[in-house]
Amino acid sequence: MNEVTGRFRVVWPPAVLARRKRMGSVAEMPPPPLTSFDIPFTIKQNPHLDRARAHTLNWLRGKGIVRDEDDAARYVHSRVADAVAHFYPEAGPEDLELASDLVALFFFCDDQFDGLLGQDPGAVAQVCRRLFTVIRRRPHAPPIPDPTPMESALSELWENCCLGMSETWRIRAVHNWADYLFANVTEAQNRVSGTLPALHGLLELRRVAVIVYVLLDLAERVNHTEIPAFLAECQQLREMRDITAETVCLLDDVRAVERGEAGSDIHNVVLALESEYTQSRGEVIVTVREMIEHRIRRFERLPKGVPALCESMGASAAAYVAVDLSVETMCWLMRGTYEWGTGDELTFDGQVAAW
């Protein structure tokens, strides 16, 4: 009789079962009750959270991103490290520090794109081109000339991200970075022109702007796994990644809707639905809840065919483990985003670090 394990009642091979037994299956942990949105995935917290939080604050100070105690307080109250500990609960202490540093850098970067800088498409494009130049560099290549604090920090992190990863992974990660960076250019152009894509187009834009694809690449690095290219691009995994990104986007837009109104940021699904369908805020939240539930129901069906797909392609035991952990990471990203959004958060509204 095959042993059945996992949240989706999927039959996995012995290598995956061994990992889950060693780490503790998430399926054995009942989820806490939810009130606003039903995100039916359990949640874990990395035991190295406190170490990562302290490390990242010191690292941000050393890189000139956090310049004073007000910046430090904003970082702590943002709870970025808490989110990362939910996204990567099985990462080791140094790997969690890497993830925490990178997501914190994203947080400061997004604050700039959503602030005054985001009203100038030309300036945003220049910043994104320089950041992309950092990402395009091959490991151990000479640094870009005269880097800003943000560029210098990203260069260090990217060098670390590529350690132990294949050239195939690096190319995939660079592509996802490009999508994220230049989505910010599109958003800046839309703000100035006052145009907003229809809902489908807005979701396509937002799902790359919330960095989920980059975070899923990072999951392979910090968990020391790698999905082979022939599996990474299979239909089931691509669709699951898209669902994860859209779910995170919808949750984030509900959390940030008041900030979007205050800052006149049009890139918010809640505000778009209110405008497009002349719905009240309460009606829109119901609609968003239905959108999330529909995506999660689809998500829960998709993994059941992945083991058979892996077997048919002759995947190794390591590939099985990488795919299994990627699927779990998608669940942790969706549930972790929800938990992060329900906590007390202090948004960034200052000018942080020189570009």
Write the SSE topology:
Layout lengths: L13 H10 L25 H14 L6 H10 L1 H8 L5 H22 L6 H16 L12 H13 L5 H27 L5 H11 L2 H11 L6 H4 L2 H21 L1 H6 L6 H9 L3 H21 L4 H7 L4 H26 L13
Explain what the structure shows.
66% of the residues lie in helices and 0% in strands. It is mainly α and 355 residues long.
Search tags:
66% helix; globular; 355 residues; disordered C terminus; disordered N terminus
Entry summary:
With about 350 residues, the protein is mainly α. It contains 17 helices and no strands.
Low-pLDDT ranges: 1-12, 24-35, 344-355
Order of helices and strands: HHHHHHHHHHHHHHHHH
Broad shape = globular
Helix coverage percent: 55-70%
Mean pLDDT: 84
Give the radius of gyration.
Answer: 20 Å
What's the helix count? 17
Number of E strands: 0
Biggest beta-sheet profile: none
For the termini, the CA-CA separation is: 60 Å
* Percentage of residues in DSSP E strands: under 5%
Structural class: mainly alpha
